[in-house]
Amino acid sequence: MLFDKLLSDVTYDDIQELSYEKIDESMLLDYKQELNDTSIIKQVTAFSNTKGGYLVYGIAETGKGGHPEYIKGIDRDTNTERLEQIILSNIVPRVSVQMKKIPIPDTDRIILVVQIPEGQNKPYYNNHDKKYYKRYNFSATPMDENEIEWLYQSRFFGMSKLDRYVEEAIFLSQNRIPHEIQLNGMEGHVIITPLKIDGQMFDPSPDFGHGLTDLHSNRTSGCTDYLSGPVMPSKFGIKWDDEHYLQNKDSVNKVEIHRNGVVHSMKRCGSYKPEGSKELDDDSLACNLLQTIRFTASFYSKISYMGKVKIMVKVFNCTDSFLTDGKIRSTEARKCDSEEISIERQWDSWKLEEDHVLIARDIMDEVSNYYGLWNSRLFEEQKGIISYGK
Predict the structure, then answer these.
(1) What mean pLDDT, rounded, does the chain reach?
(2) If we measure between CA atoms, which residue out of 183, 178, 311, 196 comes closest to residue 245?
(3) Are 377 and 286 in contact, with CB atoms under 8 Å apart?
(4) What angle do CA 132, 136, 139 make, to 5 degrees?
(5) What does the pLDDT look like over 166-214, one tens digit per residue?
(6) What's the rounded Cα separation, in Å, for the pair 353 and 371?
(7) Pick the CATH number of 2-143 from 3.30.950.30, 3.10.310.10, 3.30.450.40, 3.40.640.10
(8) What is the domain partition of the chain in residue ranges?
(9) What percent of the chain is modeled with pLDDT above 90?
(10) Between 183 and 74, whose confidence is greater?
């Protein structure tokens, strides 16, 4: 059914099932016969300010709050790119949605399904009619002042809570890594997290960990290199840990997913050379970043999470380091004059897989800026297509 699948996998049979099973409208579902620009702004605002959900256009329901009476469809030439632009231009902060056209067999009509994530920067403002809306009693209802104020407070404290959690749960844990490992190398951290981290997003178990390992392995090559070691429980959730890293000074490899949806990968990405120089292996860092983005996309698809995420890259112990690909030092790069490299981006969770090379190229370009280079030498772009050049 519609709720049990990725939107890309939804078919006309799933739409028919809504009718056969007499699925009523709810907090998460609304049927509309016709598509209207003003209405879609209002409905998307309301869903974003509540729990997210689905708008299904082209269905006549039995009444307010009712189930589908018949499938009518809308014009197959409906311009979804135009609709997305209307939504982006009229809701503040910006809201990203997913849309899919589903052809109705033997007709020239379609069903349009719009999937709206629960907003993580609530409240969202409908700039078209100057109101805040919420989903209530099967419709978009204006919010009162107290509700609006509470959401603004939640947004402010939620962002502070995320920053505090990442600092305490991840970066302060570096104090537990043996001192000689910290001094003799450079650890690269990639963290991808929902902007809102309240609650538990999955139940840690061996079955979940093995299932996620298999899912990621089927989607990417080199998974065994990324997920080093067996899946194990951790105090935060599940981890894949190189259990020998404490004894092996050349190995620091860990991938961990937290119950609240945080994904953390820590890999060695630089070291001291015999001649006394310190070098950042940007190829190793880029590989970790690319794999972590794709692994996180697999994880979020498995738990059906949809929303904005923050992508963070941090490298410690960078002062006076050079840039290398692990074998050859860049002759153009200069020494890094910062103790740490710190880069952040925000992205839509459902675009991580599609955009993983674009995201990594953008971040690695900024890493290169720390060494006096405009762009990363690891990526190429030809005819608008970006590729990882290693």
Answers:
(1) 88
(2) 178
(3) no
(4) 85
(5) 998 888 765 444 445 455 568 899 999 998 887 899 999 999 999 999 8
(6) 28
(7) 3.30.950.30
(8) 2-143, 178-388
(9) 60
(10) 74
Task: Count CB-CB contacts under 10 A for residue 368.
Answer: 20
Q: Judge contact between 324 and 286, C-beta under 8 A.
A: no
CA distance 150 to 381: 46
CB 266 within 8 A of CB 257: no
pLDDT tens digits, one per residue of 106-162: 999 999 999 999 888 899 999 999 999 999 988 999 999 999 999 988 887 777 888
Structure-token match 């920067």, residue found: 121
Contact 269, 186 (CB under 8 A): yes
Is pLDDT above 60 for 244? no
What share of residues in the chain are helix, strand, coil (percent, to 5)? 35, 30, 35
Which two tokens mark 254?
A: 């860990």
Other C-beta atoms lying within 10 Å of the C-beta of residue 292: 26
Q: Diameter of the chain by CA atoms?
A: 78
pLDDT of residue 179: 46
CA–CA distance, 125 with 140 (Å, rounded to integer): 13
Output b/e per residue, 260-287; b: 16+ Cβ within 10 A. Answer: bbbbbbbbbbbbeeeeeebbbbbbbbbb
Its sign, for the CA torsion 346, 352, 358, 362, is: positive
Residue 122 is classified by DSSP as P
Handedness of CA 44, 45, 50, 51 (dihedral sign): positive
Q: Across 147-260, where does the E strand assignment appear?
A: 185-194, 231-233, 237-241, 253-258
Q: Are 132 and 144 in contact (CB under 8 A)?
A: no
Report d(CA 257, CA 237) in Å as an integer.
6
Task: Give pTM, 2 decimals.
Answer: 0.84
Separation CA 46–CA 117 (nearest Å): 11
Cα-Cα-Cα-Cα dihedral sign, residues 318, 322, 324, 330? positive
How many residues are recorded in the chain? 390
